[in-house]
Write a structure and sequence with these properties.
9-stranded mixed β-sheet; 9 strands; alpha/beta
Length: about 675
């Protein structure tokens, strides 16, 4: 049985923390930088969202995948299920968040509606039914309901059923529950059970969308005996498009049932893929088509996985478990927990999650701090090599007559002037490249927004005279989601790659010119190694930072908001927010005109250029780095060194001995740091 996914993540974190501590011990980084790296790793949260309809086995799956024990109770009804967040806590406990007074009043109003009034509108019908169910269940709280609304309540873990169980005392007013559990591998992990499809509470649905937007991985669980039915379609269309490309895994749970009836795993998977493709084609949603195209459904049996993890004494003692154990053993001709786990295929799903984490998370969480630590060590080594080269030139200078020293000073001054001129040229070249990129990229992004707005206008114009425009708002919302999570996101990423290519090419041309200058005017200096060192350091800086950050929160992008933050703030501002504020009280023509006004405001107000101009901050960083390396750290010290040698004729012999001693010391330091680099690797 392979390592628990979360334990593996914690091990990786501890390895990087160990590297940071060693790097500080070796003097590569100071204590402040060490704490920055450690805090970033410790405070980073891996969020896994789990969605799927009731009775698909989510509770059993979460018990097997997260707890490796039968911790969570069986699922409640779809309309009263609260969003649940599982994370680490020193003690088992729960914190429930209740609806606000306004949210509860909304439910009472919904519950007062007649089902006859919404007959034929499945979405409205489900809202009314759910509201009636919630209000009826609230009778258990008697007249005290007002004392709970808008508040949070901490309780013992043993009372979880009262908040998420179908007959729980507080289930009617519980919006979300946070479950704290004392397993170390849950540190920095949030597993979110999101039953927010066709949700009767708007705020609860918004909370679900919020989690799905930030989730690193989203698992859509299907029931193998009736995979992808109407309810699954609702979940797919309402929630999955929120997740973004490349983060969705589809698990076909309870595959053991059709397997026992003679169906093969490939038949089960092929059926689900066909249904997914058909549904996406029918809804004509580009984002969903793209997501599903990248997904290869995974068959699994959460029950078998859980049985493989529980102590056999517990399996034998509980009739439900022992019966399931015997059934699975007969079905798959197995007899051990190891075989039970292998046939559960939980490891297949875990592998799929691990691959997404490696792609989406490891680069930020693990690779970047590791690269920064190694870069700090390599820089220290390079600095020693540079100093060695300078000291070796000093030895040569100490043996030169004054006229040769004068000639050397003249050559260094020429090199200084030539390089400063070329650095100015580098700044001009970067300016030209960045201006063109911003102009071209901004125009292309505006064209993308215009195209989406034209599609929205066309859909609004196609609305029938007696049709409710609420019908098309999900479609308009879907088009905006496609624009943000797919079209603009990919374009921003592409612009970032174009920018990095331009930087590499422009800096590379400058370094070639700079190498010629140094070889001409400082011939006894190891120019090639010095240029390679600078090129490597600039490459690390460029590759370690996103030119344009799309998803990153401000803290992850050194104070810059990510482009997604900018887009979402714009689209969810006055223009897009007005869509949801529209009321059927408007006449048809008035409503259509108002929707066109909203779409036109999106098109008119969209301006990506101010954000794209953030790229010019890269230019300043590159120019400063180049000036520091060539002028402040190399040529200026060399000029000063020659001047001091020339001025101190009497002390040259002593300085020669001191320099020889310093060279020996640096050679030992270089040897030490090479061993340190090897040990950290």
């Amino acid at each position: 049985m392979e390592n628990n996914l979360f334990e593996e993540l914690q091990q990786k974190k501890q390895q990087i923390i160990g590297m940071a501590e060693k790097a500080a011990e070796y003097g590569w980084i100071d204590s402040t930088r060490k704490e920055e790296i450690i805090n970033k790793i410790n405070n980073d949260v891996l969020t896994i969202g789990v969605i799927g309809q009731m009775k698909c086995g989510k509770s059993t799956f979460l018990n097997a995948f997260v707890f490796e024990d039968d911790v969570l109770p069986s699922a409640t009804t779809p309309m009263t299920a609260a969003l649940s967040v599982i994370t680490y806590g020193e003690q088992k406990r729960i914190v429930a968040e209740f609806y606000t007074q306004d949210e509860w009043e909304e439910q009472k109003m919904q519950a007062s509606r007649s089902l006859d009034d919404v007959k034929g509108n499945s979405l409205e019908e489900s809202k009314v039914k759910a509201a009636k169910e919630l209000v009826e269940k609230a009778g258990k709280l008697g007249g005290n309901i007002g004392s709970y609304l808008g508040k949070a309540k901490e309780d013992s873990f043993e009372n979880l059923i009262e908040y998420v169980g179908a007959d729980g005392k507080y289930v009617s007013i519980t919006k979300s529950v946070k479950i704290y559990y004392p397993k170390d591998y849950l540190k920095g992990v949030e597993v979110v059970d999101t039953p927010g499809f066709n949700d009767p509470i708007v705020s609860r649905e918004e909370r679900t969308k919020e989690f799905l937007n930030k989730a690193d991985v989203v698992l859509l669980m299907l029931f193998a005996n009736r995979p992808f039915d109407a309810t699954d379609r609702d979940i797919l269309f309402k929630n999955v498009r929120q997740c973004g490309i490349g983060k969705v895994i589809i698990g076909i749970n309870k595959y053991d049932i059709p397997y026992g009836n003679g169906e093969t795993e490939s038949q089960i998977v092929d059926y689900v893929k066909e249904e997914l493709t058909r549904a996406c084609r029918e809804c004509d949603d580009d984002t969903l088509v793209e997501i599903i195209r990248q997904v290869d459904p995974v068959t699994l049996s959460a029950e078998m996985a859980l049985l493989s993890e529980l102590p056999m004494s517990k399996v034998s003692a509980k009739e439900e478990y022992s019966s399931a154990w015997n059934r699975h053993c007969d079905n798959f001709s197995i007899s051990s927990q190891k075989e039970m786990f292998e046939w559960s295929h939980l490891n297949h799903l875990t592998k799929a999650v691990r691959e997404i984490i490696a792609k989406e998370k490891d680069e930020i969480l693990l690779a970047k701090p590791m690269n920064a630590i190694m870069a700090a060590g390599n820089k220290k080594k390079s600095d020693i090599e540079t100093e060695l080269g300078q000291l070796q030139m000093l030895m040569a200078d100490l043996e030169k007559p004054d006229d040769e020293l004068d000639e050397r000073l003249e050559l260094l001054a020429k090199a200084n002037r030539r390089l400063n001129k070329k650095i100015d040229g580098l700044g001009d070249d970067l300016d030209i490249a960045f201006k063109e990129l911003v102009r071209k990229g901004g125009n292309e992004m505006e064209d993308m927004v215009d195209k989406t707005c034209r599609e929205m206008d066309s859909e609004i114009d196609g609305l029938g005279l007696f049709q409710s425009y609420e019908r098309i708002i999900p479609s308009l919302e879907g088009k905006l989601q496609t624009l943000v999570t797919r079209t603009l996101k990919r374009h921003v990423e592409d612009l970032g790659q174009q920018a990095k290519s331009k930087i590499h090419r422009t800096v590379g041309e400058f370094l070639n010119d700079a190498e010629e200058v140094l070889m001409k005017y400082v011939p006894d200096f190891d120019t090639q190694d010095f240029i390679k060192k600078i090129e490597r350091e600039i490459d690390v800086d460029i590759n370690d930072k996103d030119v344009f950050t799309y998803d990153a929160a401000p803290s992850e992008s050194e104070g810059k908001p990510g482009y997604a933050d900018y887009i979402f703030a714009f689209l969810n501002g006055a223009s897009y927010g007005s869509l949801k504020a529209l009321s059927n009280a408007f006449e048809h023509s008035t409503a259509v005109n108002k929707m066109h006004e909203i779409v036109n405001s999106i098109k008119a107000n969209f301006d990506p250029e101010p954000y794209l101009n953030s790229i010019f901050g890269q230019k300043d960083a590159i120019i400063n780095k180049v000036k520091d390396s060539f002028i402040s750290e190399l040529l200026d010290p060399l000029q000063k060194q020659v001047e001091e040698v020339k001025a101190d004729k009497s002390g040259r012999e002593k300085k020669l001995k001191d320099t020889q001693s310093k060279i020996e010391q640096l050679r030992k330091e270089k040897e030490t740091i090479e061993k340190q680099l090897e040990s950290i690797k």
